[in-house]
Fold each of these.
Amino acid sequence: MPDYAAARRTMVDAQIRANDVVDPRIHAAMLSVPRENFVPNAKRAFAYADVPVEVAPKRYMLDPRVFAKMVQLAEIKSSDRILDVGCATGYSTAILARLGREVVALEQDADLVRIASEILPSVPDTKTAVVQGGLVEGVKAQGPYDVIFINGAVEEVPDTLLAQMAEGGRLVVV
């Protein structure tokens, strides 16, 4: 049986701290959330590798280093309301919820919504709501958001998401 706690520590030490992610709150969040629970059983060996992990056909969880750098760029405060766009199985949501006040997790794939909805309640200290809907549309009814975190890359940020940002809000995307 793999020692996932040791793998988490190695991930934080070798991939996160070593790549200039200096916020100790991010380190603590990534040490406390069991990433292996958010990947399919067949992919658990890759849960802490420095590679994107496929969680559904053509859907990937960001690699830990890129994810942590994006979280640091968001400069999340404990009072922030966060929209997590493309949350997949909910790992990003769990981390973001450890840092901010509350997170609305948006996912369009029904199977991923079901998985995230099942896993997230088991993660302590997370204030989350999982919503199924189009990623471009966001979740206007629960906005505005201090942070909009987009898991992945876009050619252009949709105006529909920008309109849901609170004044002085931050958007992080590749």
Amino acid sequence: MKERLHKYLAHCGVASRRECEELIAQGRVEVNGEVRAKPGTTVNPTRDEIKVDGERVRQEKPVYYLVNKPRGYICTNRDEHGRPRVIDLVPEERRIYSVGRLDEDSEGLLLLTNDGTLANVLTHPRYEVDKTYRLLVRGSLPPEAKKKIESGVWLSDGKTAPAHVRRINRKGPNTLVTVTLWEGRNRELRRMFAKVGLRVQSLTRTAIGPLRLEDMPSGAWRRVPARELAFATARLKPNWKPTAKKNARAPRRT
């Protein structure tokens, strides 16, 4: 049975569907020895030999890890500068990758997996999986800035979806806040706060849906059983429907 190449790569745990499309466009995917760089390419997994960066791809048993990403680590699997990678924290021989991204200066909760379907659920805004962050911002948090962030601000890639912002307390010249949102663009929170004139000093993701960072030390990891991910897999059932939180439209992905 034929299947779209990018979907098959995602099912094999190479990366998310969108990232697999990028790998194909970059000419890093071969089918039967030929580079395939066109979207919409179909393959027969039982008959075709498929490689990414010269390494043959096969479907494997799904595996899931929660990691407390330290600052200075990157979420990509390939880095020509030799920087420390999050995947190096986990003793896993199978090809895994981070679900969503935290930039090099950020820390906190990440899920590593080879399950492309689950990765799509956790990252695509239509599935409305909340992510919660703890931020230390420079200065105070004026009510008008809080209101703008919660209602959505215009960035270069469109208006952000509504978020929930809660001030915790002041820490000297800074303010500690928590933010919960259900979309995830590149450096989104830093750009949102910059838009209202506030600089983010530090950023830590503390939750993905019901999964919590809790007291996990920096750099630590643990295996996640499938039952803990039921909140995400339930969104794949035919009877599940988005709640259209606050009547917000899903943002344009970049």
Amino acid sequence: SSMLGYFAIGPYVNIRLFENPAAPSVLVASLGALLMLAVALRPRWFRPLTAIFALYATGVLYLTA
């Protein structure tokens, strides 16, 4: 649930504070939120979803570094 909170606040910070474009900020956060919801709603899919989330997180780090 803390990750979902981050994904809810993250786009606002990226758009307002860092003046990033709105569409990519919302899209990237929405993808992360969907992955976290899938982990919460489908516990049997935990292993494959964590691998996908790791790729997602690596992509976010690449974009923000």
